[in-house]
From TrEMBL:
Keyword Ubl conjugation tagged: no
Pfam families: NPH3
UniProt key word Signal: no
Keywords: Ubl conjugation pathway
Matches recorded under InterPro entries: NPH3/RPT2-like, NPH3_dom, SKP1/BTB/POZ_sf
Taxonomic source organism: Rhododendron griersonianum
Chain intervals for the UniProt region annotation (Disordered): 368-405, 526-546, 579-605
Protein name: NPH3 domain-containing protein
Composition skew (Basic and acidic residues), residue ranges: 388-402
Highest classification ranks of the organism: Eukaryota, Viridiplantae, Streptophyta, Embryophyta, Tracheophyta
Length: 605
């Protein structure tokens, strides 16, 4: 680090009886009081360089021995005042990035300008600051850090803004060059407890490229925000470097945020301190969120989800949470199941399922239908003379096709991700069935009929709860085969328990009763001891009419195979009439699919 020495005389300041004085043959005639400390000094060397002391001495009545001057709220304290006083005596002083801010503010306070004496302290400090401090990378950062002790003075004198501009210009000069200064924090590389192993490897890979990230991570959040804004506004550095810098800063100032917050919340006596810590961390997290680059892939999805978890724990603002959820949704295919397990603090559920639903909603907004192919010009001559605009259209079309293919691949990955997430949250006893189903439907919104059948084959209808059965009876997206299976097993369960269906919800009980009379249960008894596949375990035994049994099986096949109206017309009217005794007098809308027969066909019979 660079420094500047001024003066040539040796240091003759000493302390006696809590008073600082200067060893001199001439007796002192001025007492200066600075923040409780007293200095016995001489008027001549100080007043010749300090316009403020000249004015104060002229306004203060003289006494026989000493004239007393009060300097309240002196910037930089007694250390800064003593440095200025030594300069006035010609005693050697050393200026560096560590004390230049306090020295400059103290000189400004004392009005040590060229008006008092040419080449005064303010002039010398400004020359050193502009020519040396601002030209050095580490010097600029240290100086900027020291401005936090005197923020208003530093802002007024332009020290803060000039340091930020100098740092930004050095970063933008070559943001990817390998020039790790001695100030690069090894702590930042070894203490990345907030990140998993893959992120640590990613960090090691890019540490040489983001040579400036660890240095500016030492700044407080206010100065860091201003520095990053300057870097992004003055130039356009690669978004991945900005993202890496934000990740390093978060790992530096938000280590193990979840554990720290949980421990603090357990201690009621430390509630005030915990609140202050959470408020500080909340501001830091929201600031990092506001600095995230808009480009996809600038930061990892895992890092975004860690920020989202911290946002939940710290009770960050809803806009910050929604912004993080939106960014996670853009690159959700990169996530892992463990990343989606966001703790829930506002309900009895273990995980925040609502937040995952928001993320899935944002992800689905990214999907677009495959583009149509542009019209091609036929004829060899026309093809040879294609305009540049046509070539551009074709190029954009090919790019859009690749994007569409990537989108389809992303949906497959996200669907598998959500399936794993559902397996995790299924263990939560406080999770409402509606939320579980909402997550499943959000991951598979475009399943066709065949895919829904294959998915439902894994269901064991005999093990469904009453709530699940109720939902199955009302869910229009479920294949009718599954709905009927659910009703069959509910009827079998009711028959086994005594032949009554009074304990079943009303909507299911209505479907299981004949002619809408809940007191008269269905006469059919269903076999639940079949050993075949789940899709074949709905054989009907005990039916009095074999024709009715054939009719029911035909209805089953009509639903499974999507038989057309001509096939349905071939089903005998007598069979349909006998089969209708299995359904209520007012069948539900879903069962209308069992008889896709027009009025004209009915009239023919």
């Amino acid at each position: 680090m660079k420094f500047m020495r001024l003066g040539s005389r040796p240091d003759t300041f000493y302390t006696t009886e809590a008073v600082r004085a200067v060893s001199s043959e001439v007796s002192s005639d001025l007492i200066v009081q600075v923040q409780g400390s007293r200095y016995l000094l001489h008027k001549f060397p100080l007043l010749s360089k300090c316009l403020l002391l000249q004015r104060l001495c002229s306004e203060t009545p003289e006494t026989k021995h000493h004239q007393i001057v009060q300097l309240p709220d002196f910037p930089g304290g007694v250390e800064a005042f003593e440095l200025c006083a030594k300069f006035c005596y010609g005693i050697t002083i050393t200026l560096s990035a560590h004390n230049i801010v306090s020295a400059r503010c103290a000189a400004e306070y004392l009005q040590m300008t060229d008006e008092a004496e040419k080449g005064n302290l303010i002039y010398k400090i400004e020359v050193f600051f502009n020519s040396c401090i601002l030209n050095g990378w580490r010097d600029s950062i240290v100086t900027l850090q020291s401005t936090k002790s005197l923020p208003s003075w530093s802002e007024e004198l332009g020290i803060t803004s000039r340091c930020i501009e100098a740092i930004a210009s050095k970063v933008l000069a070559n943001p990817s060059r390998v020039n790790l200064s001695n100030s690069c924090s090894r702590r930042g590389r070894d203490d990345i407890s907030w990140c998993n192993g893959s992120e640590s490897q990613r960090h090691d890979k890019h540490v040489a490229k983001g040579w400036w990230a660890e240095d500016i991570a030492e700044l407080g959040i206010d100065l860091y925000w201003r520095t990053m804004i300057a870097i992004k506004s003055v130039g356009k550095p690669p978004s991945n470097l900005i993202g890496e810098a934000l990740r390093i800063y978060a790992s530096r100032w938000l280590p193990n945020i979840s554990k720290a917050s949980n421990n603090a919340n357990r201690k009621e006596s430390d509630s005030d301190s915990a609140g202050k810590i959470n408020s500080k961390h909340r501001l830091l997290l929201e600031t990092i969120t506001s600095l995230l680059p808009p480009e996809k892939g600038a930061v990892s999805c895992s890092f975004l989800l860690k920020l989202l978890k911290a946002a939940n724990i710290l009770n960050a603002s809803n806009p910050s949470k929604m912004e993080l959820a939106r960014r996670v949704g853009i690159q959700l295919e990169e996530a892992k199941v463990s990343d989606l397990l966001i703790p829930s603090l506002s309900s009895d559920m273990v995980y925040d399922v609502d937040m995952v639903l928001n993320i899935l909603e944002q992800f689905m907004l990214q999907g677009q239908s495959p583009p149509t192919s542009p019209v091609r010009v036929k004829g060899g001559f026309e093809r040879r003379r294609r305009s540049r605009s046509e070539e551009k259209v074709d190029s954009e079309f090919q790019e859009s096709r690749r994007s569409s293919s990537a989108s389809h691949s992303s949906k497959i990955k996200v669907a598998k991700l959500v399936d794993g997430f559902l397996q995790e949250i299924a263990h939560d006893r406080n999770l409402p069935m509606s939320k579980f189903i909402a997550v499943a439907q959000a991951a598979h919104p475009d399943l066709n009929k065949s895919e829904r059948k294959n998915l439902c084959r894994i269901l064991d209808c005999k093990k469904l709860s009453m709530e699940a059965c109720t939902h199955a009876a009302q869910n229009e997206r479920l294949p009718l085969r599954v709905v009927v299976q659910v009703l069959f097993f509910e009827q079998a369960r009711a028959t086994t328990s005594g032949g009554r269906v009074t304990d079943i919800p009303s909507n299911i009980r209505a479907l299981l009763t004949s002619n809408g009379d809940p007191r008269r249960p269905m006469t059919a008894s269903f076999s639940t001891n079949a050993t075949g596949p789940a899709e074949d375990q709905w054989s009907i035994s005990g039916q009095k009419s074999p024709t009715s049994r054939i009719s029911t099986l035909r209805m089953k096949l009509a639903e499974d195979d999507d038989l057309d109206e001509s096939f349905a017309d071939r089903i005998g009217s007598s069979s349909r009439a006998k089969a209708s005794c299995l359904l209520p007098g007012r069948p539900k809308g879903m069962f209308s699919k069992l008889w896709p027969i027009s009025r004209s066909a009915s009239q023919r019979h």
